Every structure is written in structure tokens, then in C-alpha cells.
Amino acid sequence: MRRFLLLFPIVFAATCLNAKIVMSKVAPEWNAPRAVFLPSDSTLKPDFDGAVHDEDGLPVFSLSRKAGANTDYAVSLENAVFADCSNEETLLLANSGLADSIRISISTSSFRSEKFLDIAFVPIICEDGIFKKLVSADLAIREMPAMRNSADDGDPAGRYKSSSLLSSGKWVKISVTSSGVHKLTYEDIAAMGFDNPADVAIYGYGGGILEEDFGKLGTLARPEDDLPQVPVYVSDGGDGVFSPGDYVLFYAQGPVKEIFDEEDGRFYSVSNYYSDKGYYFLTCNGNRKEMASMPAENGSSIITTEYGLMHHRIASEETNLLKSGRRWYGYRFSTSDNSRSFELPFTGINIGRPLYVDAELIGYSRQMGTSFSLRLNNGTVQTLYPERITNTNYEVGKLASGNFILSSVKKDNPVINITYNGATSSDYGYVMGIDVNALCALDMKGGSLPVCYPYDRDRYDFVRYDISGAGEGTLVWDITNPLEAGLMPATPDGGKLTFTASHSAFRMFLAVDPSADFPKPSVYGDVANQNLHSMGQCGLVIVSPEEYRPAAETIAAMHREKDGMTVHIVTPQQVYNEFSSGTPDATAFRWFMKMFYDRAGSNEASMPQGILFIGNASYDNRGIENARLPQLSYQSEESLDEDYSYPSDDYFGFLDDDEGGNITTERMDIGVGRLPVSSLSEAQGIADKIVAYAGNSAYGNWRNMLTFVGDDGDSNIHSAGADRVAERMRDINKAFNANKIYFDSFPRELTTSGASFPQAKDRILRDLEAGTLVFTYFGHGSMNNLSHELIITRNDVQNLKTGNPAFWITAACDIGRYDTPGKTSIGMDMINTPAGAGIAALTTTRVVYSGENETLCMRVFDHLIPDGRSAPASMGMAVAAGKGDTRSGANKMKYVFFGDPVLKLHYPAYKVVTDEINGTDPASAQMQALGVSSISGHIEDLHGNLLEDFSGQVDICVYDKEESVSTLDNQGTGAFVYNDFTSTIFNGSVSVDDGRFSTVFMVPKDINYSEGTGRIVYYAGNDAGNADAHGYNEDFGIYGTAESEESTSGPEIKMYMNHQSFTDGQSVNPSPVFYAHLWDSNGINTSGSGIGHNLSLWLNGDEALNMNGYFTADLNDYTSGTVKYKFNDLEDGRYELRFKAWNMQNQSSEKSLSFVVDKQARPSIISLSASPNPASDHVELVLEYDRPDNRATVDFYVYDAVGTPFFHETADLNTEGVYRCRWDLESSMGRAGSGLYIAKALITSEEGIRQSESVKILVIKQ
Questions:
Q1: How far apart are CA 1116 and CA 998, in angstroms?
Q2: Of all helices (H) and strands (E), which one includes residue 1041?
Q3: Which intervals hold domain Gingipain (predicted)?
Q4: What are phi and psi of 182, to 5 degrees?
């Protein structure tokens, strides 16, 4: 959903090529240039509504539409109308490289099996040196039958076995560290606990990293579902019986995969950055698969060769310079240690064929001219030049790569020398990898020899290999596909071993001396039976290490009970065992989820909704520099520049057949969440918080409030971005309130430690404590705080206690970095803090940029905020869909979702509708200053039906007209101007009976007297605590003055600290709560429109605190209400308070009180009461406590006259320091008989202080 539209679609048949054309009008709404942060700089850029700025800062117009299967598309702009760019825009576009026509980019993507056509273009051209911007055009989308249908892979559900081999029998897991022939003896197998080693069978495909691109399905994506069997060569001594002294050989794939590039004609290596081992499974089930003898291959078109292509890689994975990305480096160079030599294990090099060197080296220098010199055997120097570092904040090196062809290498074991030519002492270099290929003599000098001649396939149908040095009994294995390895017919001929093979396609062979001493696999251990393949369809999969399973069970049980959802809990290792041959690999989780996804077919209800990982992850999956963590992280290819490097949990959510190859433009199909914990206590704390949130019946305006916070500075870019997202939210559903907090609206204070916004900080923390549905922050950040001014720190988040935790969205750098071992970020604290803070967080793991941040947030809000017509999405699915709609490359990948991906926010489910205002239709109604206005309305469902069974209360907030607000311009760079509803006409609560309500109130004298419309926002909750509603109205007018009797006195005030029994001068705790009960027949003025007419509170004569936002009217009574305000962390000493209140006619009253702060003051019980007493049906126990805002746990006990425990219940719901418990005179021993009972309340504060009080209860029979 975007703010520019495709208008009036017209479909008609094309006149040729059987094409159908869809015509749509596009008309970008151009704005003044706005500031955009880019990797290169921060500057103004041309802009229009909904623009996504690319890496060069150019505004991109993008849209998506549903696409058909087996359809090709051609897109063009017709009837384009352009306007000259302004002088400012022209200057900003200099050196932009724009052409004289618009270049349109099209691609297709998939979301939950539905295809989309994605279109993007920069709507600016440069014609004869003049920049012009698109004003309007017809977008023509031509739909044509595809030249070829997409590959039919049959029934997707049929790709998967119904049961895993691991479901029964004894299994042992083994590992290898390198590719090649491995040996297991009879004794080795018996030592693993098998009684019948003769029946040995090996399963799996080892440690090569799985193909990430599912578009290659059926080729390289995965060898076979579950565990394929590995052919073995059996040496049984010739007696046909496998017995002691005998052994099996098999070819194993290690963690480094050797890939042959058909186009270049040479090998290169790919490391598995998840694992340093490859794994297989051993069992003795009587189904041993032995290598089969291959049929003879011969023909007339044949080439004979004594040479084979040999490959060697120079690499040492020792360090990850950026601590990000999947690439690792070794062999460090400096200006003082600048030369290294590497001997190549090549002998008998064919001088008629060149030696190929593919080098990737890393250099770091801020100067021009640094280089690497490569020389083979003191021959010609080849030079590579890394670019200089231009971004010292985020770059740790530049790649210098090159391909060299070296000829006439006559010497065996040639040496490559590398010299680093740095410019300064701080410069350095590393080897990422050097692949060397050479055609060498087939001379067998060890236990095995690779045999491959990939050349001349276009000239010959067959190739004959002549191998020297092969001893008697040497075999030739065909390992082109190791899972189908077979024995090639080979014969001795003139001292050589020869065999012939088809030459039409690439083939790989291995000459093997079975009697040689081959390495043995390591024994990992027994594998418990498991069967993920047999699992039924589910809504959620929780991936949890076994030690965190109790937390996983807590979350799963909640979803099973509350949502009726099927939830599976698995360990990472179980997933690896069935979906990546036991080898850690992130793609295994995609295959696991894809199994459920494919089995669902087109049945949306049967598709999985999310996957949740419990446990932290590291950029260092293999534990090279740090200890390994139980969960994996997917890391980007980019590993040198933080602008484009990231971890991404999104990777686990790409499940369609064509996804995984370009995840920055693809669409996730499920929600993906992570709980970044490092202990069971952390995991359980979050799990309990999630369950508490899901069952939270604390209805209130927090469910209708979305908070938007904007940092200052940088040409107001952050506040502007936050405000645009806030307005986008209002466009979707105006029933929600936007709580706008922009730093530059508050005084900026300068101290020795830097600038700060103490009032903004206080406002944010109070709002978070009270509760807000979503908290969105735009600005600067780090792992430790939000904003340079430290507005929110890790300590603030860790100490933020609220029963209504928010969904945090932080558009700032590094807030949620979670993959650096030993370090914890503020974003992790948001979810990990068990007492509140956040219920979830969409936060950043690396440096991000404002323009793309705004676009992502817009798209996420498109799906996160329900429009009032359809069911709301879970947080995880909203994030997945929003990211899919965002075409912003690497930036969106740096956002991670911490939380339960299938959990939904507490959106009001029903609608509040205004029936009448002042007895008339709202559109014709008018409220006047000093007039008594009335509002009546009702609660209805989404289909417009009155909810007659809805009884409870509705909170009503009436706002004066929307106003233009200017910030304070603290830094002198220009104020930010935005619109907001700043003046409150009435804020109160009224009862709802049988779905209907009505109220009256006086409009204050202080209003904006210009004509215009106001705004009403409703939030309603029922008495049963299981349904709520919200709504709004913006149709009525507010202007003019009504006749009224003049008031001569101000409101009555009764105020105290903490509790009503407070006496002036009494000692209180350092964070006491101030209460002021107010009454006035004309109502209490909280509008904020009149200068000096706010509810005001002075502490020791300091600057007045505005109390308007802390006033709550009493139920069904606009004439009275209460101000509640909590002070935080006051120092010991005596304090004076002065409070002033105004009524609607601007008459005031004020009062004062004093109190003493004593940090040693202990909390105390004010009273414990029981009513009715005597009791015949039930008793309500009520405990009053003098710490109204502190959390405590109260245990209520009832004992009979001889001290026998009769009843116990725990209460932790604190309502202004009051805890309640109802006893129905029942217990496990039956109903209480007549007599005297003792009720006892034991309260335990959050500091662990325990106190008790007792009361006698007389029970009588009716």
C-alpha cells in the first residue's frame, strides 16, 4: 500500500502477439527536496510522496501488482508529461548520470504462493542537459504467455518423505573434517555399540553448504530429502563375509565444497561458514549399499590423456575483520611483515596448458597506491590494487581480486609469493582465498588421486585416462555424484592404469588404493530417534535448544490453548539431522518450514505462520574467534563494509520455489522471530511476559495509543520521518491516537556531559510505563542508547516496569545488534527485560539510513495497523509483508524482529460509533465555548451490528481543532512544523449499557475560536474483560461561545502523597505518587489552550509541571476527577508542593503540602478489611498499601479457629495500592461452617520486604 496510486485500471485486448495490456495512471506528487542519509553523505535530494531513495539518493517510484503464473511482462510509460526540475533540484541532480529516457526495472516475487510483478523507476530524465521530472503518464503493462512454462517439479508435497529414517533403530552420528576417502573397520563399528557390523549402512551427504537459491530446485538445491544412503566399498578379505579385520571405505564430503565452473573451466572452493565438519549417520539395518560396477564406456571419438586438472586453495580462515558477514580472512600482511610464500602441491605440470590463479585479497589503506604483488617462481609480477578506504567508520578493507593465466610452469611444486605494498604503518592486508588450477600428470603417489579432464568435450565423445604409479588393486571410483559412486572398469596397460569414460558432460573420478591408510571419521555419538517428517501441519515452529525447552513449552501451551494453534517444538540439531545431513546449516530450517509450506499447497489456512528461534546467535557460527552459540545466524556475503553487511533472520522465511537467490528483493512467506537469550532464566522471563501479554485483560487507552518519537538535528529528518509515518497510520485507521514526541519540542539543556532533553526523557518513560500499543523511534542510536543525548539508555529499559509492554520499532543504527558474542544491546533489553519494557521489537542490527527506514516503517504500518474492515495480522506477518513491499535492498535486511512472530497486538476488536452530538447528526453539530455538550453513541461489530451484550465503560477524549505546531529550534537550524491535536476539550469516562452510552460535559472557555472541526477518540472495554472497541469522529464543529452563568470560584482540591491517610510533612519513599482530587460544577479545564490555565504542579518552586495529561475524570461525572503523578528518584530531604487548578470558566484554586523523602522508609500496610462481615455467601478481602505504583505480591490466607489452613490465593493486580481477593467460603475441605475465621494478608514488595496483617471473619449460615 502506497501513497501514490494506480488510478482507474483499464483492461483491453492487444491487437497482436495475444497480449493483454493493463493501463494505469501514475502521477508522482512532488515535494520540496528533503534530507536523506546515504552511505556516502547526508544531503538534500529530490523527493515525492512515497519515494524510496536508492544508494545514489535518487527517488524511486515503485509499485507491485499481482501477477499470473506462466506469464511474461513488458512495461512501458506512455503519454508521459514532464516538467522542468527546479533550480534547487537541478543542482542536487548534478553528476547523477540520468539518461534522456526513463529506465524501468521489473521483476517478479512471491508471497505465500501468490505471484507479484514489481516495477520500479526513477521518474527523472536529463534531456539536452535539462533535468525534467515526471508529472503524469500511462503505465502500460503488457501480459503475454510465457515463452516457456515454469519448471514443473510435480506435486511439491511429494518432495518429502512421510517418515524419517531416524524414526527407528539405532543410529550413530559421525563427522569428517575434509573431503575424501574415509575408512571404518569392523572393530570401529562394533565399538559404536552395533551387534551386527556386517550390516553397516551409511547415510547423509556431509558438510558442503546447502544451495540457498530454491530456484535451482532439482539441481543443486539439495541432494535428496531426509538422509540418502552412501555407497561403500567393502574389503572383506575375499571371503565374502564382513568380519574382524575387514573394513569399508566411502567418499565423504567435508565442510569445503569443490565446485567446477563450466564457463571458466576450473575449480573453486566454497566453505561452509556454519560448520567446520561434515556429518553422516551410521546404522546396521541390513541394507548396506555397496558401490556398483559401472558398465564399460567406449567409442570411436576418443581422446587419451595422461593429465588431469588439479586444484589447490590457499586460505586460512582466522578472523572476521568486520565482525559481520560470512567471509573470513587469514595470512595477515603489514608494512613490517609484508611478504608470504605458498608452495603449490602440483607435480608434472603440463607446460602446454596454462596455470590459472584466481586471487581474492583484502587491503586496508586510506591512501592511494597500495598494492599486492604476486609472483610465481620468480616469474612475471602480477599486481592487484585495492581501492583506498573512503568510509573509515564502516569499512575495514577493500577487495582486490584478479584472474591470472600463467604459462610455461616447468617446475614441480611451484611457489606463489605475495608482497603487500602498504603506504603507511597502519595499512594491512589479508588473504581471503586464492584458487589455483593446473593440468598435472596423473601420477598416483598416495592413497587416492583426483582424476578429471574437463577439456575438449566439444571435440571428443570419450576420454581415456592413463594413470601412472597406480599399484596393484587400485580402483577408480566415479564420484561425479558421491551418492551414486560406482566402480569404473579399469585395466593395467604398460605399467599404467587406464579407463575410458563418456566425455559429453563433466565427470569426476578418484583413483583409490583400498589398502592405503585413510582417515577415520570421528564419532559424534548416538542419535535419539526422531521424526520431523511425520509432523502434521502447524501454525508455529519453535526452534529451541533443549536447555530452553521449558520456555518454549510455555509459549506453545499458550498458543495451543488460546489460539487453537498447532505448535511444534524442535531442537536445532533435530532439524539439521533430517534436513542438512546433521551439519549445521541455516538453509535446513528453510527446508523444514518449506515442507509444511509445500504440503499446504494453496490452502492458506494450512500454511505455517511463523518460526521462533529461542537463543542468541553469533556472526562466528563456527566458533573461530568466540565460543559457539546454540543457534545459527545467516550472514550476508558482504563482510567488509557495514553499509551492506548484516545478519538476517529473514532468510528463514523465504519458502517459495524461486526464492533464496536474491533475498533483498524477495518476499518472506512466514513471520520470523527470535528471543535473543543466553540463559533459561532469560528465556522463561520472556515466555512468561508473552503469556501475560496474550492474556492481558487490562483494558485502557494504551491499547489505542501509538507513540512516535523523533530525534532532533540533521535538518529535522528524523522528526519529519516519524511524523510522516504517524500520519500514514492515521490514514489507515483514525481511531488510533498518534502520540507525537519530537525532541526539538522540548527545552535542550547543556551540561558538562553534553546536551540532554530531560523533559522529553521523562515524558517518554512515563508514557512507556503507562503503556502504548506501539513505540516508534526515528533518530540516532547505538547498542547502548537511543539518541546522542542518551534519551533512553540500557539502564532505563532494564528498569522500565509496565504491565502493558509496547511493540518497539527503532529506526536507528545498531539498536538491536545481537550477533556480537559477549555484548548485549539495548534492543535485546527491550524484549529480554521480564518486568515490562517491550513485548516485541523490530530493531536494527547495523548502520541504517533514514529514507529507507521511513519507507520500511510505512510498509510495516500498512500491515500492522488494522483498517477496521479485516482481521489484524500478527506482528511477525506484518513485518514479513511490510518488508516484502519494501524494495530497499540491504537496509531492510538489517532489521530483526525480536519476539513471538504469531503473537498479535491487543487491537480493539469492535467499533465505537457516534450517533449524536448535542442531539443532532455529528456532521451538523457544533460545540461552543462554555456550552454544555452531549455525545451519544453505541458499540458495534465490524459488520455494523449493535453489540447489545456489551456493558462496561467508554473513555472519551474530545480534541479542539488540529493545529500547526512549531518546534523550539534549539540548535538554530530551523524549526520543524507539524500538525497535531494539542488541545483537549474533555477527557472522561462514561458507562456503556447494552451497547449504548451518552455523556454531557462543559466546553472550556479556552478554545481555538476559528471555525473548524474537532476530533473525538473513543476507547471502550466491557465489564467481563474480554472485549474492547475504539472509534473516532471528526465531523463536528468547534467555534463560538454559548451563554452561561459566570463562575466566581475555582475547583475544590484534596491532595496527598501515596495514600489518603497521608498527613502534611509525613515521610515518603523516593518515588512517591502525588494525588489531587478535584471537583467543580463547571468541570476541570485541561485544554491547554489558554496561557497559564494548565493544571500545574510546582516542586520546591521549580518550573511548573503541566498536569493536564495526568488528569482522569470520574466515571459518568465531568465535574470531578483525579490528577495522579509519580515522582522518580527524589533525594532525601524536605519538599514543598504547590498545585493549581482551573475550571472551564478560568477560575482557579491552589493548595500546598510538604513531605519528607526518606530512602530508608519502609513500605507499610494501611489496612486490611473484610466485607460483608459477618458473611454468609462470600467475603471480599481488601488490602491497602502505601506504595500505589510499586509492584508487590499479596498472599491471602484464611484459617479456622484452631489454625487449620482453609483458603489461599495470590493477588498481584495493584489498583492504586489496593489488592483484592474474593473468598466464596469454599475450600478443598468443603464449605466453611459457621464460626470464627482469621484472614491474613502477607505482602511481599519487589525489594523482598514482607509484612502481614490479619482480620477476623464471622461466618454464619443463611
A1: 9
A2: strand 1037-1041
A3: 541-905
A4: -130, 155
What letter represents residue 635's amino acid? Q
Q: How far apart are CA 1 and CA 939, in angstroms?
A: 29
Cα distance between residue 359 and residue 259, in whole Å: 16
Query: CA 869, CA 864: separation in Å to the nearest integer?
Result: 13
Question: Would you give the end-to-end CA distance of the chain in angstroms?
Answer: 65
Domain 7-145 is found in CATH 2.60.40.3800: yes
Cα separation, 543 vs 874, in Å, equals 19
pLDDT one-digit tens code per residue, 632-663: 999 999 999 999 999 999 999 999 998 999 99
> In whole angstroms, how large is the CA radius of gyration of the chain?
37
Burial class (CB in 10 A: 0-12, 13-18, 19+), 1093: buried
* Residue ranges covered by each domain of the chain: 7-145, 165-290, 307-441, 538-614+646-906, 910-1037, 1052-1157, 1165-1259
Beta strands 448-451 and 792-793 are unpaired
Which three three-digit cell numbers place residue 256? 569445503
C-alpha cell at position 42: 547526508
Name the architecture of domain 1165-1259. Sandwich (2.60)
3-state secondary structure (DSSP) of residue 1043: coil
Per the listing, cell 519448471 goes with 151
**CA pair distance 287, 229, nearest whole angstrom:** 9
User: Per DSSP, which regions of 918-1012 are E strands?
Assistant: 926-929, 932-940, 952-959, 963-966, 977-980, 984-992, 996-1002
Assign domain 1052-1157 to its CATH architecture: Sandwich (2.60)
Cβ neighbours around 1102 below 10 Å, total:
8
> In this structure, what DSSP letter does residue 484 have?
G
Of 737, 732, 771, the residue nearest 861 (C-alpha): 732
> How far is the C-alpha of 941 from the C-alpha of 910, rounded, in Å?
5
1248: cell is: 523482598
Which one, of 281, 254, 256, 258, lies nearest residue 184 by Cα? 281
Rounded-to-integer distance, Cα 538 and Cα 550, Å: 20
707 forms beta bridges with 739, 775
Low-confidence ranges of the chain (pLDDT < 50): 1-17, 149-151, 220
Strands 1096-1099 and 1105-1106: antiparallel
Instruction: Judge if 1052-1157 and 1165-1259 fold alike in CATH terms.
Output: yes
CATH 3.40.50.150 is the classification of domain 538-614+646-906? no
Cell numbers for 1247: 525489594
CATH of domain 910-1037: 2.60.40.10
Question: Which phi and psi (to 5°) does residue 574 adopt?
Answer: -60, -40
Q: Which residue has the cell 510498509?
A: 859
Distance between CA atoms of 309 and 318, rounded to whole angstroms? Answer: 29
- What residue has cell string 546522542? 788
Please report how the helices 680-694 and 549-563 are oriented relative to each other, as an axis angle in degrees rounded to 10.
Answer: 10
Q: How many CB atoms lie within 10 A of CB 154?
A: 9
Using DSSP, state whether 931 is helix, strand or coil: coil
The DSSP secondary-structure symbol of 880 reads: H
Tell the residue number behind the cell numbers 490466607, with chain if given.
Answer: 1197
- If 0-12 CB within 10 Å is exposed, 13-18 middle and 19+ buried, where does residue 392 land? exposed
Cis preceding linkage at 1172, omega within 30: yes
Closest CA to 357 of 391, 402, 396, 310: 402
pLDDT at 38: 65
- The residues near 962 (Cβ < 8 Å, ≥ 6 apart) are 979, 980, 981, 1012, 1015
Enter the pTM of the model.
Answer: 0.92
The answer to whether 131 and 125 are in contact (CB under 8 A) is yes
Q: What kind and span of H or E run contains 77?
A: strand 71-84
Torsional sign, CA 28, 32, 38, 41 = positive
Contact 410, 349 (CB under 8 A): yes
In the numeric block, the cell 519494557 is attached to 837
